[in-house]
Design a protein that fits this description.
Chain B: Residues 3-230 form the ABC transporter domain. The structure holds two protein chains of two kinds. By secondary structure, chain A is an all-alpha fold. Chain A is built from 13 helices and no strands. Helix content of chain B is 37%, strand content 26%. The chains are: A mainly alpha, B alpha/beta.
Chain lengths: 242, 235
């Protein structure tokens, strides 16, 4: 399994695509955070990172599908999946290896943003006036969110030969699971169903972790979420007719 | 018996791609798998290698069932798929090391070196796979199939699209490998069958129509040309 993980990661790092998508992600982060007046911290007036953490999920909706879209779709198109499937590896190991490679790349994209923590703490009055606990919680939330989106992306990639379709399906599913349930729950706002539906969405759990409180319910939610999409992926791969 | 196939079937909806075929193969012999396009040759091979799950029936590779001991069977088989799919963005050595790692081969760099020498890839070993000519890609395909010393080799049209010089080389290599291993190759070239195979199986519409040595087939159908026999059985 480690061999497949290594191959996946290196093929990302050897291709320009990974650098371009990560570059675009970081550029978008920087522009939204410091330049565009609507979302800029400088115009906002408070030295805190809340704006950043509410924007990144929406950037992740595009970054992560762009990373994951090729994982199975490309193998299907090129017919190279047979090279993996006839090795002494189970489907689960192959899925896990590809998933972990995407997660590592997601972390690579996140690491440079740590510099904003330093900037904000320098901008605070007095210097260093920043809620470190909340920042750690928010990064953990982003990491878990990235895991959930990667699982969605891997699944979308496994159902089609076409990378563009894989990308589009993944973006839709990410958006829907992140904020779709919130919107639906508003329809049933005054009923019990509403508060149940909110809990299906990622946003609710992401917000809860971002507050800096690590609740096992949120952790269980994310783990279940990833496992469910693993299951779907395994079904899609197991019924191969390609 | 290192390969024992017991009424193996694969159905795609109503269509029976492979219809309850049974055969056996022994070590040290090269078995030719013949049949028109769409007869079920590749499907049978894919089932043996564990890529496709059979609809019904079973097969044993060195006494291990492809249904229940899937991973153990995959360790025993070397497989060259049809059209030789390869990761074009990898370097030859990088790719072979990757394949070796999936089998947890000890002393891997040494083994990669040996395999490269064995299939005659030495002059091209530092190139990217995507830049190789068809003949060399085929050699990379063979190298990845034999790197883990499999006792069974399954080669799906290993010589398609090669020039006459490459043909002779690859055939000699297959014949060499066949001395110690069980080899199944599928092909459309009858001269090739006569040149390297000990036994042939002719398959048509998912059923086996002949399973014998070349000489006894010729005796049976009183014909000197395998091509004629093939046309008679599958036409």
């Amino acid at each position: 399994m480690y061999a497949v993980f290594k191959r996946e990661l290196f093929s990302f790092l050897n291709s320009l695509m990974a650098y371009i998508t990560i570059g675009v992600f970081l550029l978008a982060c920087a522009m939204l955070l410091w330049v565009f007046p609507d979302t800029s911290i400088l115009d906002y007036g408070y030295a805190e990172l809340n704006g950043f953490f509410s924007l990144v999920p929406f950037l992740f909706m595009f970054l992560i599908p762009a990373i994951t879209m090729r994982s199975f779709a490309e193998e299907r198109r090129e017919g190279t999946y047979v090279l993996l499937a006839t090795r002494p590896l189970s489907d689960t190991q192959i899925i896990l290896a590809k998933y972990l490679a995407c997660v590592v790349l997601m972390v690579f994209a996140l690491i440079p943003t740590l510099v904003y923590y330093y900037s904000i703490s320098e901008l605070g009055l007095p210097k260093g006036n920043i809620d470190t606990g909340a920042v750690i919680g928010s990064y953990l939330g982003l990491f878990l969110l990235g895991n959930a989106f990667s699982a969605i992306g891997i699944f979308s990639s496994s159902i089609t030969k076409n990378q563009v379709i894989a990308f589009a399906v993944a973006v839709f599913l990410c958006f829907f699971t992140f904020s779709g349930f919130d919107s639906i729950s508003k329809i049933f706002e005054l009923q019990a169903l509403g508060s149940v539906l909110v809990n299906f969405g990622i946003n609710e759990h992401y917000q809860s972790i971002s507050r800096g409180v690590l609740d096992t319910r949120d952790l269980v939610y994310f783990i279940t979420f990833v496992l469910v999409f693993f299951g779907f992926t395994k079904l899609a791969i197991g019924g191969r007719k390609w | 018996m290192s390969i024992k196939v017991k009424s193996l079937s694969k159905h795609y909806g109503q269509q029976k791609a492979v219809d309850a075929i049974s055969f056996e193969a022994r070590p040290g012999k090269i078995l030719g798998f013949l049949g028109p396009n769409g007869a079920g040759k590749s499907t049978t091979m894919k089932m043996l290698t564990g890529y496709l799950a059979p609809t019904s029936g079973d097969a044993e590779i060195c006494g291990k069932s492809i249904l229940t001991e899937n991973l153990a069977v995959k360790e025993l088989i070397g497989y060259l798929p049809e059209n030789t799919p390869l990761y074009n963005d990898m370097y030859v050595r990088e790719f072979l090391s990757f394949v070796g790692e999936t089998y947890h081969i000890a002393n891997l760099s040494h083994r990669v070196e040996d395999v490269i020498k064995q299939v005659g890839l030495t002059p091209e070993q530092h190139k990217k796979i995507g830049m190789l000519s068809k003949g060399y890609k085929q050699r990379v395909g063979l190298a990845q199939a034999i790197i883990h010393h499999p006792s069974v080799l399954i080669l799906d049209e290993p010589t398609s699209g090669l020039d006459p010089n490459q043909l002779t080389d690859i055939r000699a290599l297959i014949k060499d490998l066949g001395a110690a291993k069980t080899v199944i190759i599928s092909t459309h070239i009858m001269q090739e069958v006569e040149a390297i195979c000990d036994e042939v199986i002719i398959i048509n519409n998912g059923k086996i129509v002949a399973n014998d040595t070349i000489s006894s087939l010729k005796n049976q159908y009183k014909s000197n040309s395998l091509e004629e026999i093939f046309r008679k059985l599958t036409g």
